[in-house]
User: Fold this.
Amino acid sequence: MQAVKRMIPLYLFSLSVVLACAVLTSRAVGLLARTASAELPALLPTVVVDPGHGGEDGGAVSPGGVKESDLNLETSLRLRDLLDFVGIPTVMTRRTDLSIFSPEARTVSEKKISDLKNRVRLVEQTPNALLISIHQNMFSQSKYRGAQVFYRDSSGSRTLAETIQELLRRSLDPGNHRKAKENQTAYLLTHIHCTAVLVECGFLSNPEEEALLQTAAYQKKLAAAVCAGLWTHLQEQKET
Ligand SMILES: [Zn+2]
Assistant:
Protein backbone atom coordinates (compact mmCIF):
# COMPACT_ATOMS: atom_id res chain seq x y z
CA MET A 1 0.00 0.00 0.00
CA GLN A 2 1.34 3.37 -0.93
CA ALA A 3 1.17 6.11 1.64
CA VAL A 4 0.31 9.51 0.24
CA LYS A 5 1.47 12.30 2.47
CA ARG A 6 0.74 15.97 1.98
CA MET A 7 1.43 19.17 3.82
CA ILE A 8 -1.61 20.08 5.88
CA PRO A 9 -1.23 23.88 5.55
CA LEU A 10 -1.53 23.51 1.80
CA TYR A 11 -4.86 21.75 2.28
CA LEU A 12 -6.23 24.45 4.47
CA PHE A 13 -5.24 27.14 2.04
CA SER A 14 -6.34 25.18 -1.01
CA LEU A 15 -9.75 24.21 0.31
CA SER A 16 -10.60 27.76 1.28
CA VAL A 17 -9.60 29.03 -2.14
CA VAL A 18 -11.31 26.33 -4.11
CA LEU A 19 -14.53 26.65 -2.22
CA ALA A 20 -14.57 30.39 -2.51
CA CYS A 21 -14.09 30.04 -6.26
CA ALA A 22 -16.45 27.16 -6.81
CA VAL A 23 -19.47 28.01 -4.70
CA LEU A 24 -19.40 31.66 -3.81
CA THR A 25 -23.08 31.81 -3.10
CA SER A 26 -23.41 28.35 -1.66
CA ARG A 27 -24.33 27.58 1.90
CA ALA A 28 -21.59 24.98 1.74
CA VAL A 29 -18.98 27.70 2.07
CA GLY A 30 -19.65 28.41 5.71
CA LEU A 31 -19.77 24.77 6.66
CA LEU A 32 -16.67 23.98 4.67
CA ALA A 33 -14.74 26.90 6.06
CA ARG A 34 -15.35 25.42 9.50
CA THR A 35 -14.25 21.97 8.40
CA ALA A 36 -11.14 23.38 6.81
CA SER A 37 -9.80 24.39 10.20
CA ALA A 38 -9.09 20.75 10.98
CA GLU A 39 -6.35 18.42 9.83
CA LEU A 40 -6.73 15.49 7.49
CA PRO A 41 -5.20 12.05 8.05
CA ALA A 42 -1.67 11.64 6.68
CA LEU A 43 -2.74 8.55 4.73
CA LEU A 44 -5.32 9.61 2.18
CA PRO A 45 -7.41 7.35 -0.02
CA THR A 46 -7.02 7.49 -3.76
CA VAL A 47 -10.44 8.57 -5.00
CA VAL A 48 -11.60 6.70 -8.09
CA VAL A 49 -13.90 9.20 -9.79
CA ASP A 50 -16.29 7.29 -12.02
CA PRO A 51 -18.39 9.14 -14.61
CA GLY A 52 -21.15 6.61 -15.21
CA HIS A 53 -21.78 5.20 -18.70
CA GLY A 54 -20.01 6.69 -21.76
CA GLY A 55 -19.58 6.13 -25.49
CA GLU A 56 -22.29 3.92 -26.93
CA ASP A 57 -23.87 3.72 -23.49
CA GLY A 58 -25.35 7.17 -22.96
CA GLY A 59 -27.24 6.14 -19.83
CA ALA A 60 -30.50 7.98 -19.27
CA VAL A 61 -31.56 10.44 -21.97
CA SER A 62 -33.93 13.30 -21.11
CA PRO A 63 -37.03 14.00 -23.22
CA GLY A 64 -35.07 16.93 -24.64
CA GLY A 65 -32.17 14.68 -25.67
CA VAL A 66 -29.67 15.45 -22.89
CA LYS A 67 -27.45 12.42 -22.31
CA GLU A 68 -26.64 11.34 -18.78
CA SER A 69 -23.15 10.20 -19.81
CA ASP A 70 -22.20 13.75 -20.89
CA LEU A 71 -23.33 15.37 -17.63
CA ASN A 72 -21.67 12.59 -15.63
CA LEU A 73 -18.37 13.33 -17.34
CA GLU A 74 -18.61 17.11 -17.00
CA THR A 75 -19.44 16.95 -13.30
CA SER A 76 -16.83 14.24 -12.65
CA LEU A 77 -14.08 16.30 -14.28
CA ARG A 78 -15.03 19.23 -12.06
CA LEU A 79 -14.90 16.95 -9.01
CA ARG A 80 -11.54 15.54 -10.14
CA ASP A 81 -10.16 19.07 -10.51
CA LEU A 82 -11.32 20.05 -7.02
CA LEU A 83 -9.90 16.92 -5.41
CA ASP A 84 -6.61 17.33 -7.25
CA PHE A 85 -6.43 20.96 -6.24
CA VAL A 86 -6.83 20.24 -2.53
CA GLY A 87 -4.30 17.41 -2.77
CA ILE A 88 -6.50 14.32 -2.60
CA PRO A 89 -5.15 11.74 -5.10
CA THR A 90 -7.52 10.73 -7.89
CA VAL A 91 -7.90 8.19 -10.67
CA MET A 92 -10.64 8.41 -13.30
CA THR A 93 -12.38 5.46 -14.92
CA ARG A 94 -12.78 7.54 -18.09
CA ARG A 95 -11.78 11.07 -19.14
CA THR A 96 -13.64 11.28 -22.45
CA ASP A 97 -16.91 10.10 -23.98
CA LEU A 98 -15.86 6.47 -24.21
CA SER A 99 -17.02 3.12 -22.91
CA ILE A 100 -14.06 1.19 -21.49
CA PHE A 101 -14.98 -2.30 -22.71
CA SER A 102 -12.29 -4.79 -23.75
CA PRO A 103 -11.63 -5.43 -27.49
CA GLU A 104 -13.14 -8.94 -27.43
CA ALA A 105 -16.59 -7.60 -26.47
CA ARG A 106 -18.84 -7.59 -29.55
CA THR A 107 -22.51 -7.14 -28.71
CA VAL A 108 -24.03 -4.22 -26.84
CA SER A 109 -24.59 -6.32 -23.73
CA GLU A 110 -21.07 -7.81 -23.90
CA LYS A 111 -19.63 -4.31 -24.14
CA LYS A 112 -21.72 -3.12 -21.18
CA ILE A 113 -20.63 -6.05 -19.00
CA SER A 114 -17.00 -5.71 -20.08
CA ASP A 115 -17.09 -1.97 -19.34
CA LEU A 116 -18.39 -2.57 -15.82
CA LYS A 117 -15.88 -5.36 -15.16
CA ASN A 118 -13.04 -3.08 -16.24
CA ARG A 119 -14.29 -0.38 -13.88
CA VAL A 120 -14.41 -2.93 -11.05
CA ARG A 121 -10.87 -4.06 -11.92
CA LEU A 122 -9.59 -0.50 -11.85
CA VAL A 123 -11.11 0.15 -8.42
CA GLU A 124 -9.85 -3.15 -7.02
CA GLN A 125 -6.33 -2.58 -8.36
CA THR A 126 -6.08 0.94 -6.94
CA PRO A 127 -4.33 0.88 -3.55
CA ASN A 128 -6.40 2.36 -0.73
CA ALA A 129 -9.20 3.19 -3.16
CA LEU A 130 -12.42 5.06 -2.41
CA LEU A 131 -15.02 5.14 -5.17
CA ILE A 132 -17.24 8.09 -6.06
CA SER A 133 -19.47 7.25 -9.02
CA ILE A 134 -21.40 10.09 -10.67
CA HIS A 135 -24.80 9.52 -12.33
CA GLN A 136 -28.04 11.35 -13.22
CA ASN A 137 -31.47 10.07 -12.31
CA MET A 138 -34.56 9.56 -14.47
CA PHE A 139 -38.20 8.72 -13.70
CA SER A 140 -41.43 8.33 -15.61
CA GLN A 141 -43.06 11.26 -13.78
CA SER A 142 -41.46 14.67 -14.20
CA LYS A 143 -42.37 16.02 -10.75
CA TYR A 144 -39.61 14.15 -8.92
CA ARG A 145 -36.31 15.92 -8.32
CA GLY A 146 -33.36 16.09 -5.94
CA ALA A 147 -29.89 14.65 -5.61
CA GLN A 148 -29.54 11.34 -3.78
CA VAL A 149 -26.50 9.39 -2.66
CA PHE A 150 -26.39 5.60 -2.67
CA TYR A 151 -23.80 3.51 -0.88
CA ARG A 152 -22.21 0.10 -0.84
CA ASP A 153 -23.00 -2.18 2.08
CA SER A 154 -20.28 -1.01 4.48
CA SER A 155 -20.32 1.33 7.46
CA GLY A 156 -17.71 3.66 5.95
CA SER A 157 -19.70 3.93 2.72
CA ARG A 158 -22.86 4.71 4.65
CA THR A 159 -21.34 7.50 6.73
CA LEU A 160 -19.70 9.02 3.65
CA ALA A 161 -22.99 8.90 1.75
CA GLU A 162 -24.92 10.48 4.63
CA THR A 163 -22.37 13.27 4.93
CA ILE A 164 -22.48 14.04 1.20
CA GLN A 165 -26.29 13.86 1.18
CA GLU A 166 -26.50 16.44 3.97
CA LEU A 167 -24.09 18.77 2.19
CA LEU A 168 -25.98 18.43 -1.07
CA ARG A 169 -29.19 19.34 0.74
CA ARG A 170 -27.68 22.35 2.47
CA SER A 171 -25.79 23.75 -0.49
CA LEU A 172 -28.09 22.92 -3.41
CA ASP A 173 -31.65 22.46 -2.25
CA PRO A 174 -32.77 22.75 1.41
CA GLY A 175 -36.12 21.29 0.32
CA ASN A 176 -34.50 18.03 -0.78
CA HIS A 177 -35.40 15.53 1.94
CA ARG A 178 -34.04 12.45 0.21
CA LYS A 179 -31.97 10.16 2.42
CA ALA A 180 -28.77 8.37 1.58
CA LYS A 181 -29.71 4.80 0.73
CA GLU A 182 -27.97 1.44 0.43
CA ASN A 183 -27.83 0.05 -3.10
CA GLN A 184 -27.67 -3.73 -3.48
CA THR A 185 -28.11 -3.90 -7.25
CA ALA A 186 -25.63 -1.58 -8.97
CA TYR A 187 -22.93 -3.84 -10.44
CA LEU A 188 -20.06 -1.58 -9.49
CA LEU A 189 -21.14 -1.15 -5.87
CA THR A 190 -21.72 -4.86 -5.34
CA HIS A 191 -18.45 -6.09 -6.86
CA ILE A 192 -15.87 -3.95 -5.10
CA HIS A 193 -14.56 -3.98 -1.54
CA CYS A 194 -13.64 -0.39 -0.70
CA THR A 195 -15.68 2.52 0.59
CA ALA A 196 -17.98 3.46 -2.28
CA VAL A 197 -20.82 5.88 -3.02
CA LEU A 198 -22.88 6.59 -6.12
CA VAL A 199 -24.22 10.13 -6.46
CA GLU A 200 -27.39 10.60 -8.48
CA CYS A 201 -26.99 14.34 -9.08
CA GLY A 202 -30.60 15.00 -10.04
CA PHE A 203 -33.47 14.04 -12.33
CA LEU A 204 -33.18 14.52 -16.08
CA SER A 205 -36.92 13.86 -16.20
CA ASN A 206 -37.60 17.09 -14.28
CA PRO A 207 -37.25 19.99 -16.75
CA GLU A 208 -36.15 22.52 -14.15
CA GLU A 209 -33.49 20.24 -12.70
CA GLU A 210 -32.44 19.09 -16.17
CA ALA A 211 -31.66 22.73 -17.02
CA LEU A 212 -29.71 23.24 -13.79
CA LEU A 213 -27.67 20.06 -14.20
CA GLN A 214 -26.34 21.35 -17.53
CA THR A 215 -24.97 24.61 -16.12
CA ALA A 216 -21.35 25.03 -15.08
CA ALA A 217 -22.42 26.83 -11.89
CA TYR A 218 -24.62 23.97 -10.70
CA GLN A 219 -22.05 21.33 -11.64
CA LYS A 220 -19.44 23.24 -9.61
CA LYS A 221 -21.75 23.29 -6.61
CA LEU A 222 -22.37 19.57 -6.95
CA ALA A 223 -18.65 18.89 -7.17
CA ALA A 224 -17.90 21.16 -4.23
CA ALA A 225 -20.54 19.51 -2.04
CA VAL A 226 -19.18 16.04 -2.84
CA CYS A 227 -15.59 17.18 -2.27
CA ALA A 228 -16.56 18.79 1.03
CA GLY A 229 -18.49 15.70 2.08
CA LEU A 230 -15.43 13.58 1.50
CA TRP A 231 -13.27 16.07 3.37
CA THR A 232 -15.61 16.02 6.36
CA HIS A 233 -15.78 12.23 6.26
CA LEU A 234 -12.00 11.90 6.28
CA GLN A 235 -11.77 14.29 9.19
CA GLU A 236 -14.41 12.38 11.17
CA GLN A 237 -12.62 9.10 10.47
CA LYS A 238 -9.42 10.58 11.81
CA GLU A 239 -11.13 11.51 15.07
CA THR A 240 -12.57 8.04 15.70
ZN1 LIG B 1 -26.57 6.10 -14.66
User: Anything to note?
Assistant: The chain has one domain: 8-239. Residues 52-53, 59, 68, 135 surround zinc ion (CB under 6 Å). The CA atoms of residues 21 and 220 lie 9 Å apart. The longest helix spans residues 216-239.
